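Task: complex structure prediction.
Instruction: return structure tokens for all chains below.
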Amino acid sequence: MSAVTGRPADVRRGRAWMGTVGWGALAWVLAIAFFLPVLWMAITAFKPESAAETWPPKFVFSPTLAEFRLVLSGAGPYLTHSLVATVGSTILVLILGVPAAYALAVHPVRRWRDGLFFFISTKMLPIVAAIGPLYVLALRTHLLDSTALLIILYTAMNLPLAIWMIRSFMLEVPGELLEAARLDGAGRLREMTSVILPVISPGLVSTALICVIFAWNELFLALNLSVTSAATLPMYLISSVPQEGLYIAHLSAAALVASVPVIIVGWIAQRSLVRGLSMGAIK
Amino acid sequence: MAVLDKVAVTSSEEIAPRGLSTRERWVRRLPLLPALIYVIVVTQIPFVVTVYYSFQSYFWDIPAPAHFTGFSNYSTVFTNPAFRGALVKSVIMTASAVIVAMILGVVFALLLDRKFLGRGVVRTLIITPFLVMPAAAALVWSGPMLDPNFGLLNYLLAPVGVQHVAWLSTHPLGSVIVVMIWQWTPFMTLIVLAGLQSQPPDVLEAAKVDGAGALATFRELTLPHLRPYIELGVLLGSIYLVNAFDQVELMTKGGPGTTTTNIPFYLYQQVNNAFDIGGAAAAGVVTVILTIIVATFALRMFARVFQFEEAKG
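Output:
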């Protein structure tokens, strides 16, 4: 192609360049439009309440941290409950999930495929269907309105996903490494601690991040089964909507505070997000 | 990035030989048991209890103890138009949200698959809605975005003649679905993008050399290649969206009337407003049975779509 005289190639290159810029510009426009509600939430959060409910909407105003101060001053217990439920359930998921994934991947039990499908099938049962009985069970076992109950339920919610995901990481551990460890006389436990865990630790981090996202954002179970001593951040967010009066800036600040931790976690975990969301099917 | 092989599913017996000693079998089973027992106890017991209560008359605002009522809760469920209505709403919401999110996801993925300035930033912007707490998304949409008097959407649409539309009361179902689409498009984008990036470049190159147009290449080569990815996205998206509760509760409270009451919200109301544990349990059992029917197909799709990398020996 380079041997041909300059002009047609130039034109072609020019057209290709135009195409690249055009598609790129379109992608930018769509992405910004798509991101707009998040941006608007962030902008509104910095407004004084009087500037938040105006027509036309204000784009120039003197930013204030007043609403953030107000939001954070009341968020303490909710934040604690959310952290305990999220971190607690994620740790429990890993403790239960790593050995289970091992038994489905490395030295598999005989019906490992059925096991995998059993776990995934529990994700398809709508938990909402059992909410009444769940309430009664929680009441009888004195677990109602406790972070322990949320930890138990969030663990069950995330465990199937984690097992699928961790299994997919374990399958990538090179067989030679396992073989070498075996020749060195390593038992199953040493094989796990000195070969598998170090290799899959980045995978475990992504698995944990996915579990954190789902547990942090969960509302239905928390709303139905907690009152005060286990009320989580999403519930605090709802309580920031009053029956009357101006509330838009306050609501936006609360929404931003509640969302930001997971947004940051998600941005960090971007590369492994797709793998987690597809339960390890896509790498 | 890559690979979602359509590996043929082989029977598990080939991998884990039958000839294992009883001891070895238990050594292998042991690490699985804690998780297995945990999931059985926490996810199955509530459903067993649900079946039990579905045959009981039990209102928890009345001190009278629960008592057996036979199938009366079930006949209420089947004759109750509210339950059928909620079922239809659930299907409409899930299907339209998943389909539109998938179409948008394909568009975004095709754009992101090209090289351009700031691609990483655009990708980050696009995935963000998925990360926003659903409760926050619902509240931010219903207030700052959709409010009739000061919402941003009416302002942006004013040049095309839209004036102070009260979206949540005039288009309640559409508004709820829009928020679902907004939150789930990033998910579809990521999955389709992974599919696009796993497409062998030489095939596309060959098509170009053969003089195939961009559209023909997309239809004849790219789309078939994307099929398992699209199926996976639709399947997983449906699993999550059929349980959507936050948007309905926080944007419309199921209303006006019952226009946006889906199954999760209906069951929530049965328990929290009607205090009818028995009735909610019967509706729940019917929901679970319907889900199992759908899930059987879904699981079969899973087996087909998922790569079944074999376990190590």
